[in-house]
Amino acid sequence: MLDLSLTLTSILVRIFSASWLFIVPPPSTPLTERATKTSKRFALLVVHVVCTEVRLMIDTAGDLHGDNSSSNSVIMENEATSRPRRMLPLCFEILEAVIGVLVKMEGGDGIHEDDGFWKSIDSIRLALTETFGAVVAFLVERMEIYQIEENWAILDNPITAFSMRALGTWIAESPTEPTSDFTSAIPLIVAFLNGDRLVSMAEVHAVEFLGPALTNLSCDEAFRIAFVDSGGVQACTKVLSATVSGTLNVSGDVVASIVGVVLNIVVVDAACVKVLKGVFEEVLGTCVSMSRLIESDGWKIGAGNKMVLQAQSITLSVFLVRVLDEVAVRRVLMDGGVMTSWSRALVTFYERWLNEPEVSESDEENVDEVVAVSIRVD
């Protein structure tokens, strides 16, 4: 009965978003106060039940397969793990949707504020924090086993993979300060990205599956350091190179996210660029190739994606030209007319940016912001 209720909740969240859990009626009828209290209690009940189930299921998976022996390290399909394999993705889907709604609410998105409401939100956030603390502990254990055995199946299963993606959403959207416990899960996310394979249960590449896990990893200093130290820049570089070469096919949004991750690192940590000079030299070459490919219409993505991705790749290229030494820049740009074609791509982009009629308002804001950064670069 509980599984049926959770499944129905996930379906409703998918259709109506998690906002329906928190519906606060406008103050237009005498029943408003009672309806408001009911909605708070319902949201609290749903989140606490889901959080409890998540913790129970990952504890079950960890207890069953917590040692380092090769026979037990991979979470195999059996009677004990069939429920976590089936229900954890649904539970995490609910929690990810709730996290997104919390972000909107805390931004003042049409909420009737009162002390009782925010106490409910605090209770929900506390439950999420404790739950993802347990998720981190589980993932750290998975990482320790993976480092010993290097078996992709340790990562590529519904329990581990969906735990990583949900944790990435929490990291990206949570306003709380990162702790050493949370940053200790970053190496596993990087290892998953570095696997350069399809996620078996979703039939998409690991980078596309992780999604929000990559978006803000390079914004916060603690997460950025953990990401860089774990080889995150090298993993991003490999994905970008494979995308430009045509050996990897992912959406323009995902590529833009990866470029954004690397751009954040370059902008705030120039010392990292100098330490990983060879890696960032490859990034520069990849971004230049990407700009030329987009400019020549060799990359068939939507107009909005194309503008945003071109803006980000150009901005990252310009920053790298500033930070890398002259020898490295010459190696990339002074080879076979690359400088000429890249300059043409820059000019063409700015012309299209000024005259593109098909870019949505949100994409135009993104492009404006990135272009403004690139123009300020001296």
Question: In terms of topology, how is this protein built?
Answer:
Blueprint lengths: L1 H15 L15 H33 L5 H4 L5 H28 L8 H35 L8 H16 L6 H4 L2 H9 L3 E2 L4 E2 H5 L1 H4 L5 H9 L2 H14 L6 H17 L1 H6 L1 H19 L7 H21 L2 H8 L4 H18 L5 H16 L2
Antiparallel strand pairs: 1-2
Which key terms come to mind for this protein?
19 helices, two-stranded antiparallel ribbon, 378 residues, elongated, mainly alpha
Describe this structure in words.
The chain has helices at 2-16, 32-64, 70-73, 79-106, 115-149, 158-173, 180-183, 186-194, 206-210, 212-215, 221-229, 232-245, 252-268, 270-275, 277-295, 303-323, 326-333, 338-355, 361-376, and strands at 198-199, 204-205. With 378 residues, the chain is mainly alpha-helical. The protein has a two-stranded antiparallel sheet with strand order 1-2. The relative contact order is 0.07. Mean pLDDT is 75; it is low at 64-72 and 366-378.
Give start-end ranges of low-pLDDT stretches: 64-72, 366-378
Number of strands: 2
Question: If you average the pLDDT, what whole number results?
Answer: 75
Portion in beta strands: under 5%
Strand order of the largest sheet: 1-2
Structural class designation: mainly alpha
Biggest β-sheet description? 2 strands, antiparallel
SS field, number of helical segments: 19
Cα(first) to Cα(last) distance is 63 Å
Shape designation: elongated
- The ordered H/E elements are HHHHHHHHEEHHHHHHHHHHH
Range of helix content: over 70%
Rg calculated over all Cα atoms: 23 Å
